[in-house]
Write a structure and sequence with these properties.
By secondary structure, the protein is an alpha+beta fold. It contains 5 helices and 7 strands. Strands 1-2-3-4-5-7-6 form a 7-stranded mixed β-sheet. The radius of gyration is 15 Å and the shape is globular.
């Protein structure tokens, strides 16, 4: 049974809390621990994205923050899922799925027609289950990755 209760826009006062959740979520993946230690600046939530309503937060039934997404306009009706982070204690409980479904709904409300994401190999299957298809390779500061798109 998913612990996700609701999703709402982030508030400016949540930046520190969301960055700490991003840190915990990112460090969950052993492949990224060394790179994150070397690039601590990779953990950041943009206050301007919060102000623009582009950061959405998942809460559990106790109103605790358990995940968040950040979606940015990329032009021509395409939006980029720039960040998706779930508390490691909530993995596998539907929080990530709920956040992606919320992103799809949010993008549709903005008049968007597609969502792109760049992801590592450990999350390809997750995104494919949600309708994303691989479009090619990508490069990130942490190394090779995969570009994917979901048409809405």
């Amino acid at each position: 049974m998913p612990e996700l209760d609701y999703i709402a826009p982030a508030n400016p006062w949540q930046v520190g809390e969301l960055e700490e959740l991003q840190r915990r979520s990112s460090l969950h993946w052993p492949a990224y621990r060394e790179q994150l230690a070397a690039h601590a600046d990779a953990i950041a939530v943009d206050p301007a994205a919060i102000a623009a309503g582009q950061v959405r937060v998942a809460y559990d039934h106790n109103a605790d923050t358990i995940g968040f997404s950040c979606t940015l306009p990329a032009g021509n009706g395409v939006f980029e899922l720039d960040g998706l982070f779930v508390d490691p204690l909530e993995l596998g409980l539907g929080v990530g799925r709920g956040l992606v479904e919320d992103v799809f709904a949010w993008v549709r409300r903005q008049g968007g027609t597609a969502v792109t994401v760049v992801c590592g190999p450990e999350t390809i299957a997750f995104y494919e289950r949600l309708g994303f298809v691989r479009t090619g390779a990508a490069q990130t500061r942490f190394g090779p990755a995969h570009a994917m798109v979901a048409e809405l």
